[in-house]
Amino acid sequence: MDGIRGWSVLVTGGGSGIGLATAERLAADGAHVTICGRTEQKLIDAVARIRAVAGGGATANYAVADVTVDDQVAAAVGDTSEATGRIDAIFACAGGSFHIGPIVDADIAAVRATIDLNLTGSVICVKNAGAAFRAQGTPGSIVLMSSGAGRFPHPYLWAYGIAKAGICFLAKTAAEELGPLGIRVNAVAPGIIDDELMSFITGGGPLLDNYIDQMPMGRVGTVDDVASAVRYLIGPESSFVTGETLGVDGGHHLRRGADYSLLFPS
Fold first, then answer.
1. What residues have CB less than 8 Å from 41, skipping those under 6 apart?
2. Phi, psi of 69, deg, nearest 5
3. Per-residue pLDDT reduced to its tens digit, 162-202
């Protein structure tokens, strides 16, 4: 089995963090990788890192794209196919949170932006990748980025959580609909990961302590932990797996969510 050698894969949010680590892992295994994001210089810097570890003649390129804009994602999918004439997989990693706080004080514009980036952006990625696989007449693999916050409650992180919960259901629904076309759809649900997005927590403090107290493995995860899980779900090793959300959280889901109200001491 050649694994993913020679595949063409799109990674959204590939300029940093989990997206970049996954792009590096895929390229090291011989896949042609295209990353996309909104900030060109970040993408340029990331491509240099990916090329430095690429194996087996793999290439790395980028496309400037906002995952909430349908036409831009469609163009990024098209760019991904340039290396081989097709696209084989997508990791829809782009996401983030614009709202943390109690429901009764919600900033609705920030809630909408959070849902749009995470959930609507994932729908747009599934739409365009799925359409490309169908047009090619080939099987394909889609991996979405959920979160532990989308599987069990994290007080005050509910806006992000409901968006990520929607991604878990999107994976199931899309897997059902696209399965007859040979297209698999899965998701990963990381816990606390030591990356740029979570650095305000992983740097230490009561919220980090709260996370660690609720994790059987008692440590913060790494971007490589998640990249390995995505690599499995993208590749042929998981060819009979679809509609699943894989927790990558050190067992956090076995207990309770972290309490983000700790960011707002009274």
1. none
2. -115, 110
3. 999 999 999 999 999 999 999 999 999 999 999 999 999 99
CA 262 to chain centre: 26
pTM of the model: 0.97
Could you tell me which residues come within 8 angstroms of residue 131 by beta carbon, excluding any fewer than 6 positions away?
Answer: none
Closest to 140 (Cα-Cα) out of 36, 242, 211: 242
Rounded to 5°, the CA angle 127-131-135 comes to: 175
Phi first, then psi: what are they for 131, rounded to 5°? -65, -40
Residues acting as catalytic residues: 160
CA dihedral for 19, 25, 27, 31, sign (positive or negative): negative
Please, are residues 79 and 65 in contact by the beta-carbon 8 Å criterion?
Answer: no
Report the alpha-carbon distance of residue 24 to residue 48 in Å, rounded: 10
CA dist., res. 17 & res. 88, Å (int): 22
The H-or-E segment that residue 170 falls in is: helix 158-178
**Position 197, amino acid:** L
CB 94 within 8 A of CB 19: yes
DSSP 104: G
**Closest to 150 in 3D by CA, of 176, 189, 193:** 189
